[in-house]
Amino acid sequence: MTTTNKSKKDYSIYFQPPSYSDAKKRGKEDIEVHYDFNVPEDMKEIGKDKFYLIQTYGCQMNEHDTETIKGMLEQMGYRSTDDRKQADIILLNTCAVRENAEDKVFGELGHLKHLKLEKPSLILGVCGCMSQEEGVVNRIMKKHPFVDLIFGTHNIHRVPVLLKEAMFSREMVIEVWSKEGDIIENLPKKREGIKAWVNIMYGCDKFCTYCIVPYTRGKERSRRPQDVIAEVRELARQGFKEIMLLGQNVNAYGKDFEDIEYRFGDLMDDIRKIDIPRVRFTTSHPRDFDDHLIEVLAKKGNLVEHIHLPVQSGNNEILKRMSRKYTREHYLELVRKIKKAIPDVVLTSDIIVGFPGETDEQFEDTLSLVNEVGFDSAFTFIYSPREGTPAAAMPDDIPAEVKKQRLYRLNDALNAISKQRNELLKGQTLEVLVEGESKNNANVLAGRTRTNKLVHFEGPKELIGQFVQVRITETPTFYIKGDWVQEAVTQQLGS
Ligand code: SAH
Ligand code: SF4
Ligand code: F3S
User: Fold this and answer.
1) In 141-166, which positions are buried (b, 16+ CB within 10 angstroms) versus exposed (e)?
2) 129: annotated binding-site residue?
3) How confident is the model over 193-222, as a mean pLDDT?
4) Which of 70, 103, 167, 383 is the most exposed place for a label (fewest CB within 10 A)?
């Protein structure tokens, strides 16, 4: 369903809005894997002496897509710039998960209009999850007609071709595939620093009732194990210190393989044997978290003792209406098993307050679960209705002020736990991967523990990119402070 469209009038013929019922009928269409991506010959030099700037919103999946788009642009000769005035291409890689994410993008488009007027040759593009929503495409066409290019999440490999069309067309070029595409394996990626993201799967089939992601990212499809493993090996060879495996629901990895029985636990067990110091993953859905995975994670080594395990709510009725497909009891039992197998595990979460119809008592259940589990931190959100999702049609009579108060109370509870948990670290010496200078003080270095806690300490800049030992001295809420222990032998592969 490739839909390139130069005529603004006809776009709706090609563009299909997200449909809950259609998406749920997803079949077992074969997903083909392609290994033959190439920038077309006539586009290889087109970016010579030209610059691009990409602004990315949303999750790590989107950040990683940006790295892929950058990779393609650089194969076309473009170079990166932070200066909007210098840029010949500006892309907004957008997120649709909550309304405020979308508002930011529309605000930004308002500002970019002036740039476009000053420099008509500028190519202004919108991509990412918002482009997969029909309402958004309509709104851009009506209110921001100066945009040159819109493409979605399933066709980023088409960037070279689409750019060419945008350059030579006087109309807005819109190519959004309403159905997910195949897996394209050999796309170039521009990675920076010491940490690398690696997709292990795309899409999501969970259909939590509040969530837009299954529509914007399409159905679940896993990369073949050998492709993931080859990529991780190559990153190890290139000297990356940490990798983050990405999927909307990594525990569903491999469910779509018909020819092999190979799941996320198996993948982690294989990646454990690769010589890369730290391996993380996100996001885990509690429902598919199986015992084999717990067993593998307990082997530690490069598999760090941090699990991001979004719970969303602590109340069974709300969980049911969210269609999370687990209960409070199931979640707590899973936490018990994980803590038994990995006693020093750090658990973090995502939590939504003010889901339609959430009562005070139901919210209290979330607070009590948070205290019972003892999350080290959590991302907390006020529910935001997303057009086309089932929850958007549920009656929502909770006043905005009540939702805000719930968010404050939840954050207070989380901060208190976080403080307590961090205090336990005082006096301990921890392995820290040094990432750079702290934002506010160039004499202070910042790094992360295996459990992903931010640590500040004083030390020479040569330590950036290395593992060091830091003795924890102070524990303010959002980071911890310590002293570099020079004499300690740096352990690179955990315990
Ligand atoms: N795949 C991940 C989450 C992706 S979205 C998972 O299932 O854990 C990241 C987080 O955004 C979600 O965990 C949820 O807490 C939040 N979120 C998603 N849709 C939302 C909405 N409509 N309103 C508020 N928060 C939302
Ligand atoms: Fe959204 Fe649920 Fe899928 Fe996560 S698991 S992306 S919250 S539908
Ligand atoms: Fe946002 Fe899309 Fe990620 S909606 S959270 S950028 S998958």
Assistant:
1) beebebbbbbbbbbbbbbbbbbbbbb
2) yes
3) 95
4) 103
Residue 446: pLDDT over 70:
yes
Cα separation, 230 vs 132, whole angstroms: 31
CATH level 3 topology of 429-494 = OB fold (Dihydrolipoamide Acetyltransferase, E2P) (2.40.50)
How far is Cα 46 from Cα 160, in angstroms, rounded to an integer? Answer: 10
Query: Residues 48, 77: contact at Cβ < 8 Å?
Result: yes
- If pLDDT is split at 50, 70 and 90, which confidence band does 63 have? very high
Q: What ligand is nearest to the CA atom of residue 309?
A: 1
39-53 pLDDT per residue, tens: 999 889 999 999 999
Please give the backbone phi and psi of residue 80, each rounded to the nearest 5 degrees, phi first. -85, 145
Ligand 1 proximal residues by C-beta, below 6 Å: 97-98, 210-211, 213, 248-249, 283, 285, 310, 312, 350, 352, 381, 383-384, 386
- The answer, yes or no, to whether residue 6 has pLDDT greater than 90, is no
Query: Ligand 2: which of 95, 129, 285 to mutate, most ligand atoms within 8 Å of CB?
Result: 285
- Domains in the chain: boundaries: 8-175, 183-423, 429-494
Fold of 183-423: pyruvate-formate lyase- activating enzyme (3.80.30)
Residue 491 confidence (pLDDT) above 60: no
Q: What pLDDT sits at residue 134?
A: 81
What does residue 75 show for φ and ψ, rounded to 5 degrees? -65, -20
Closest by CA position to 430, among listed 472, 476, 479, 487: 472
CATH topology of domain 8-175: Rossmann fold (3.40.50)
Q: Which of 16-25, 128-137, 194-203, 419-428 has the lowest mean pLDDT?
A: 16-25
Question: Is pLDDT above 90 for 19?
Answer: no
> Pocket around ligand 2: residues whose beta carbon is below 6 Å from it?
204, 206-208, 211, 213-214, 248-249, 285
